[in-house]
Amino acid sequence: MGADVVDGVLAALADPTRRHLLDLLSEHGQATATTLAVGLPVSRQAVVKHLAVLDAAGLVDSTKVGREVRYSVRSAALDATARWMAALAAEWDRRLARIKRIAEAAERDSR
Amino acid sequence: MGADVVDGVLAALADPTRRHLLDLLSEHGQATATTLAVGLPVSRQAVVKHLAVLDAAGLVDSTKVGREVRYSVRSAALDATARWMAALAAEWDRRLARIKRIAEAAERDSR
DNA sequence: CAGTTGTGCAACTCTGGAGTTGCACAACAG
DNA sequence: CTGTTGTGCAACTCCAGAGTTGCACAACTG
């Protein structure tokens, strides 16, 4: 699994405004930067920049229709990151269990 | 599920140095800031700050032993965030499917 | 055609966070 | 007790990124 994908998604999700943006997008399915900016306490330009970040992370898709650009949510990258995270948590558990086993064995030997 | 927990975890994981730190910790199971700083291109103080962030996010646990502080990985918060993310991805899929259904119905009516 | 509206581009400000250094203090070893 | 070593605290520097404004340009509407 591409580590850079995970990297991009994590960096993108770190910002509250971008998470809110994704929330709005998933509600409406389709929206332009101008429309999205109305429901947010920031300017349209700020929204455009955030959408660019989300686009680079693969969390959002853009389509030009006439003079406007419609954005929509893409779940693939998020899903991949969720799987990566779950695998990481499992890996930690595995390592912790192994270390605990070794520690117990060492203690048993010392007695 | 606490949204602030997810928030903290995402913010914590956004930094590459912190992810590397977590990786090192899960390998050794136990480590002090001084020890960890050796394998990283940053000072001990920088490591201490990162560990403080990870601690606040619940990703790391600290224990005082004599004059040194030992850190260890905690998988609970990461696991919770992974579940949250998977649920979010599923939610997006659900909404997208619903919107697609509506769009197709509208198209069928217009014909 | 003229007027309106949505985007894109560029140049700025400004704050948060990553990193550093220096020093004081507590906990060891001899 | 004396010297050494690991942490903690505080005051800095520095820069990426979040946000802004202003303007030019393309795309619709009448």
UniProtKB/TrEMBL annotation, chains A, B:
<keyword id="KW-0805">Transcription regulation</keyword>
<keyword id="KW-0804">Transcription</keyword>
<dbReference type="InterPro" id="IPR011991">
    <property type="entry name" value="ArsR-like_HTH"/>
</dbReference>
<dbReference type="InterPro" id="IPR036390">
    <property type="entry name" value="WH_DNA-bd_sf"/>
</dbReference>
<protein>
    <submittedName>
        <fullName>Transcriptional regulator, ArsR</fullName>
    </submittedName>
</protein>
<keyword id="KW-0238">DNA-binding</keyword>
<dbReference type="InterPro" id="IPR001845">
    <property type="entry name" value="HTH_ArsR_DNA-bd_dom"/>
</dbReference>
<dbReference type="InterPro" id="IPR036388">
    <property type="entry name" value="WH-like_DNA-bd_sf"/>
</dbReference>
<dbReference type="Pfam" id="PF12840">
    <property type="entry name" value="HTH_20"/>
</dbReference>
<dbReference type="InterPro" id="IPR051081">
    <property type="entry name" value="HTH_MetalResp_TranReg"/>
</dbReference>
<feature type="domain" description="HTH arsR-type">
    <location>
        <begin position="1"/>
        <end position="93"/>
    </location>
</feature>
